[in-house]
Amino acid sequence: ALLSGQIDAILQDLPVNAGLATENPGFTVVETYKTDEQYGFAVAKGSSLKDELNGALETVRSNGIYDAIYDKYFPTGGAKSGPGPEASDVDGTESITVCSDIPYPPMEMEGDGPRGLSYTGFDIDLMDALAAELGKNLEVRAVPWDGILGNLASGSCDVVASSVTITEEREAEVDFVGPYFDADQSLLVKG
């Protein structure tokens, strides 16, 4: 609708608009609105994965992997997105199963992902880096957003990685790894 001129602007999550601006040279993010919202990876209440993944997140932030993944999906200065890092091959047989509502580009989408995954995006690539840091493989299950957190309680997945905003209501139901991303809002225009 923005491309055809039916609307003048799109107000939505900054990562989504940033991805659209990167992929469409005629689009520009003209305003960013700071919010207190942050994304976190959800895990079942009391899961040992919370501490393990928080430790891995701290490591990938300190060793530059987080920044490389961020730059892949949110390049600065009009640069096109690059390939980003590849997580090292893991010899272990253990896996972390992630549930994600796909697609929500550039955070989660179908495509050639790291280590042969058929999904990619900021959330998926970051979760793969965290899993590799823990010596585990990553499996991704595409599930609908409605009821996505229920997959943790049922054991269908170990982690929900789907741009989940951390809220008090959700914290009553699940634990969060992170926050790993500030969920600011932005205004996207054509021109």
Task: Write a short abstract of this structure.
This protein is α+β, with helices and mostly antiparallel strands. It has one domain (37-182): Periplasmic binding protein-like II (D-Maltodextrin-Binding Protein, domain 2, 3-Layer(aba) Sandwich), CATH 3.40.190.10. It has helices at residues 14-23, 49-62, 65-73, 122-133, 150-154, 168-173, and strands at residues 9-13, 27-33, 38-44, 95-100, 109-110, 119-120, 137-142, 159-165, 174-182, 185-190.
Task: Name a few traits of the molecule.
191 residues; alpha+beta; D-Maltodextrin-Binding Protein, domain 2; 6 helices; 10 strands
Which secondary structure elements does this structure contain, and how are they paired or packed?
Layout: E1 9-13, H1 14-23, E2 27-33, E3 38-44, H2 49-62, H3 65-73, E4 95-100, E5 109-110, E6 119-120, H4 122-133, E7 137-142, H5 150-154, E8 159-165, H6 168-173, E9 174-182, E10 185-190
Parallel strand pairs: 4-7, 4-8
Antiparallel strand pairs: 1-10, 2-10, 3-8, 3-9, 5-6
